[in-house]
Amino acid sequence: MSGETAPGAPAKTAALDRHFGISARGSTVRTEILAGATTFIAMAYIIMVNPAILSDAGLPVAAVAVATCIAAGFATLAMGLVANVPLALAPGMGLNAYFTYTVVLQMGVPWQVGLGCVFLSGVIFLLLTVAGIRQMIIAAIPVHLFAAVAGGIGLFIAFIGLKNAGIVVANPATFVAIGDLKQPGPALALLGLLVIAGLSAWRVKGALLIGIVVTSIVAWLCGQVHFTPQPYSLTALTETAFKLDIAGALGFGGGHGLGLIEIIFVFLFVDIFDNIGTLVAVTKRAGLVDAAGKIPGLNKILTTDSVATMVGAMAGTSTVTSYVESAAGVQAGGRTGLASVVTGILFLLAVFVAPYAQLAPAAATAPALIIVGGLMMAPLAEVDWDDAYMAVPAFLTLIIIPLTFSIANGLAFGITAFAALKIVRGQAKRGDWLLFVLAGLFVARFVWMAAG
């Protein structure tokens, strides 16, 4: 009897298959669950890193830890159930740093007002989606730049992995250099890299997750994991939940003037283009982009991440955005929203054990990022590198993303260069108006940044 399948199991599996279209996308329930777990492990660092950054802005660490889990869990669950894509969301790393070090510490805006600005940027985000403007923006970007974005994010992910592993380190003379590979961190990461690459070469399903687990176990056995969790309870969330000051963000309290408009604009601007870049890269890797370069269910995807930002602000965290680490789950075989549902559930469960969510050390997760980054180079074959008209904007996009740690900057350089070359070649048409508007906004952004 022990080897028999539970009576309700086949029916449940069939129901999941129908709802998410698992078989139609060439996947299985087991693969989707494995992919969701892989994405969660690759993203779990945010549960500790986000509170560490936002605490510098005066937010309580314990409250932000709970808020981070709830925001990521809600957003990722919604993305899976509503949009049916293997895309995970959580508070964005670059945006939480901007929130803390620019908005609060540099500009002197109270964190409650800052959260209000985040909420309003989510509202505007949603309005732009309903009006179809965000979809028009995505449609205005040429397909070969999408391929370049995917490759650029691949380099970005790989560079983060190499940095986290200590294989690549900072150097005052050459900016970066090779790290000390004899140290435990880099050595463990190289072991993980070998395990994952070997399993991947043998086409073993779940190679990323297996590699992370194996490396984590070795790290623990060698005494290389030193982790001291700080206790908290779920009631800690009350210290940040619904503390956002929307009236203050609208300027009714006075004292910050046009600075609040600038803050909302930056949150909105960066979120739009970071989301677009990540969305394109992950869905392209998952094979969800059609021959015309369009993403099915795009409106649902965009609506979901807009609402996610508002929910995150109400819980007490900075802008929630799509995560490039979703590519780890896609590489593990994730093709449907079931993978996102699994990731979302794990984030919600992590609420109860948030301090222990990073049991997998950086040396264990870094190899997965390196491998995924390398595999994301495949779309670059779609770029005609012999044609400077396409190659130059694509290359600028590809190289600027990792070197500036910004997907938005890469898109800015690529789109602006493409628009400029259209004019130079005399191929500008009336239908390209939005492309030129975007290029103009990007130029204005760089001018504004330089003036600041």
Q: Could you walk me through the main structural features you see in this protein, from its secondary elements to its overall organization?
A:
This protein is mainly alpha-helical. Helix content is 65%, strand content 3%. The protein has 19 helices and four strands. It has a two-stranded antiparallel ribbon with strand order 1-4. Helix 3 crosses helix 4 (61-83), helix 9 runs antiparallel to helix 10 and helix 17 runs antiparallel to helix 18.
The neighbouring-strand order within the major sheet is 1-4
Q: Give the overall pLDDT as a whole number.
A: 86
Biggest sheet layout: 2 strands, antiparallel
- Class derived from helix and strand content: mainly alpha
Tally of strands: 4
| Portion of residues within helices | 55-70%
Q: Compute the number of helices.
A: 19
- Unreliably modeled segments: 1-6
List the helices and strands and how they pair.
Elements: H1 9-20, H2 29-43, H3 46-54, H4 61-83, E1 89-91, H5 93-104, H6 111-130, H7 133-140, H8 143-165, E2 168-171, E3 175-178, H9 184-201, H10 207-221, H11 246-249, H12 258-285, H13 298-315, E4 320-322, H14 326-331, H15 337-349, H16 362-375, H17 388-404, H18 407-424, H19 433-451
Antiparallel strand pairs: 1-4, 2-3
Helix pairs in contact: 2-15, 3-4, 3-5, 4-13, 4-15, 6-12, 6-13, 8-12, 8-16, 8-17, 8-18, 9-10, 9-16, 10-16, 17-18, 18-19
Task: Please give a quick description of this structure.
By secondary structure, this protein is mainly alpha-helical. The protein is 65% helix and 3% strand. It contains 19 helices and four strands.
